[in-house]
Amino acid sequence: MNKKQLAISMTAQIVSFLVSLGVSFVLSPYMGRAIDTSASGFVSQGNYFVAYAQIVVSALNTMASRFITVSIHQGREEEASRYFTSVLFGNIFMAAVFAVPATFLILFVDRILQVPEEMVTDLQVLFFFVAVNFMLSIILSVFQIAVYTKDRLDLLAVKTIQAELARMLVLVGCYTFFPPYMWYVGVGTTLQTLVIGIGNYRYTKRLMPEVSIRREYFDLGKIRELVSLGAWNSVTRLGQTLLEGLDLLISNLMIDPTAMGLLNYAKTIPLTVTNLMGSIVGIFNPQITILYAEGKYGEMVELVKSANRIMIFLLSIPVAFITVFGDIFFSLWLPEYDAQQLHILCILSMGTLYISMSIQVLYHIFIITKRVRLNSLVIVFSGVLSTGTVFLLLNTTDLGLYAIVLSSMAYGWLRNLLFTPLYASRCLGVSWKTFYGDILTGVKSLVCVGAVGMAFRLVFPMDSWATLVIFGCMAGVAALGANYLVVLKAGERAMVRAWVRQKLHRGS
Predict the structure, then answer these.
(1) Residues with Cβ < 8 Å from 147, sequence gap 6 or more?
(2) Which backbone phi and psi does 336 adopt, to 5 degrees?
(3) Rounded to whole angstroms, how far apart are CA atoms 247 and 231?
(4) CA 68, 71, 74, 78 torsion-angle sign
């Protein structure tokens, strides 16, 4: 395990996450006050429409990193070039195809969603930029493979920080000097995608000079090979969408736009933690893939176990703290809404993370071992059950928004307890009990960190942003100490000590 590179990548990813977090938490309540409660919900719904379209796109792109990385590390550069060129041309074709349904959505958005009449034009312009951003992201996505293949995700994180700052400047400028509209968010996001895409293109030229883009390298056989496996990842994305991605759409259609806005606020923190989890787990994926390509399977299993513990070490703190301090946070962030209701909705929306944070790395195992089919079928089956349960509860009970998030949490728990760790063990040829210890470690960590947070809440007053931040940070330091003892083994503790010493040395 390259501990130095992991530490560098992790630091860069966390800084990138914090910048994005700051922009989101400032923007969401502002839009609710300046435009309408449903405004942030419509912005999120536009992003979810993109996620729906990416279900199809992922059939080609999900497996590309795996195949190109394995080809390069096994010395087959021309084969890597064929994969790379084929994916690029395939993405350009798909972007052109998706322009048709995107146009239809933009023109008839008020017939598809419940939209206040005065917001229709604003929403259409927003969805136009969302569509442009989506098509750009499809075309440019292949260039992100270079930092993955060469295990330089820190470069991507730095570029992401720059792009996030550019988006922030656009949004601050637009909302400061012009009347408030939702479509400014689309402009900022499109600029963000361009900054990252151009940066990744330059990284590809620098990091993968052995890979060439030539028309004669385009190979339909390579596309068929990628899609034959990647199609199951599309099925996985479909299941995830049914489990969680339809929440806002269902609340808009079956309740009302205001309920959609409230649910969007409640899901902001869980979505943020999920994005952080995805960023951190992505740091380990290149090294896991490289070890697999080199046939070092024992080292790969050890890295997976170590990655699980590091994920728990970092993620249990925000998950436990929002459970303990969430009502205080919402009363300060959105004082005009019911903080208790938002807190309950937030906990239920975040419920799957109580288990999945401990084993998130395992999903990459299915990709690199090319054992994606069964996992995809289980996820889509649980998604269908979840969606059906939501409709049943909404029509037979008065649970309302609680029914939507409670169903997702219940089926997420079942899948992550009864299937994911067992099937990952089978794919790696290890004991079925291998990863249940990590889940138990995650639970112990949540209990310890939650106890630390509760102790601080009982002793110190937290009735303002200043006191919440000050005492919350103090509790965070104490929680890191608890996790250092409860979660990490000797190797991870050494890595943490080395990272701290390096930062202190630079500071001095």
Answers:
(1) 153, 155, 156, 200, 203, 207
(2) -85, -5
(3) 24
(4) negative
Position 370, amino acid = K
Per-residue pLDDT reduced to its tens digit, 372-427: 889 888 988 888 898 899 889 988 888 888 988 899 899 999 999 999 999 999 99
The full length of the chain comes to 508
- What's the Cα-to-Cα distance from 122 to each of 181, 191, 250, rounded to whole Å? 6, 19, 22
Residues 17 and 279: beta-carbon distance below 8 Å: yes
278: CB partners within 8 A, 6+ apart: 360
**Which pLDDT value is given to residue 458?**
92
Q: How far apart are CA 125 and CA 29, in angstroms?
A: 21
Helix 401-418 × helix 247-254 angle, to 10°: 150
Rounded CA-CA distance 469/36 in Å is: 28
CA 121 to mean position of chain CA atoms:
30
Q: Which of 362, 354, 489, 372 is nearest to 425 (CA)?
A: 362
pLDDT of residue 243: 62
Q: Convert the pLDDT of each residue in 335-360 to its tens digit.
A: 888 899 999 999 999 988 999 999 98
Q: Are 59 and 28 in contact (CB under 8 A)?
A: no
- Exposed, middle or buried: residue 248 (CB in 10 Å: 0-12, 13-18, 19+)? buried
pLDDT at 140 over 90: no
Q: The dihedral of CA 373, 374, 379, 384: what is its sign? A: positive
Q: Is 207 left (phi over 0), alpha (psi -120 to 50) or beta?
A: alpha
Percent helix, strand, coil in the chain (nearest 5)?
85, 0, 15
Q: Where are the domains positioned within the chain?
A: 3-503
Q: Among 24-33, 153-162, 185-194, which is the least confidently predicted range?
A: 24-33
Helix, strand, or coil here: 295?
coil
Q: What is the pLDDT of residues 256-306, one digit of tens each?
A: 777 777 888 888 888 888 878 887 887 888 888 888 888 888 888 988 998
Q: Which pLDDT band, with edges at 50, 70 and 90, does 447 fall under?
A: very high
Separation CA 128–CA 102 (nearest Å): 8
pLDDT given for residue 146 in this prediction:
87
In angstroms, how far is the first alpha carbon of the chain from the final one? Answer: 28
CA dist 431 and 10 (Å) reads 30
Q: Provide the whole-model pTM.
A: 0.71
What distance in Å separates the CA atoms of residue 140 and residue 153, rounded to the nearest whole number? 16
